[in-house]
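User: Can you predict the 3D structure of GNAT family N-acetyltransferase? Sequence below.
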Amino acid sequence: MLRKCTGLRIIGQRCLINWKACKVLDIYDTYNTTNLDDETRQAYGYSDKDGTIYGTDQFIGEPDYWNKGIGTLLVSSMLQFLVDHKKADRVVMDPQASNERALRCYAKCGFRKVRLLPKRELHEGEYRDCWLIEYKI
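Assistant: Sure. Here are the predicted structure tokens for GNAT family N-acetyltransferase:
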């Protein structure tokens, strides 16, 4: 799935992906929404009737690897895995509204904005708005 991926380790629900020189660039978390607390489920607006829903979060911590298509390859590969092997009906994320680079990547992979989540994430001492985005089969 991932071209140039030199290693993949699964630790519980975490999947560490190494790129080229064995630097860990991305961390993927996947979780079924049935495991989300009521507050998060309510904020997202989903119920058990919405099918199998996975959430994912990732980052590329090394700026030298930004704008090289790695994120798009990673997200599209994870989507393929979740749909083909986990039978996901939807995949959701909640990136910060100001993260335009990530939002462009997710849009390229087929995600659409569902709703703005005001003051959703505490980041560097300040609550930030996030978008709930969704990839729906």
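The chain has one domain: 5-136. Residues 34 and 48 are 7 Å apart (CA to CA).
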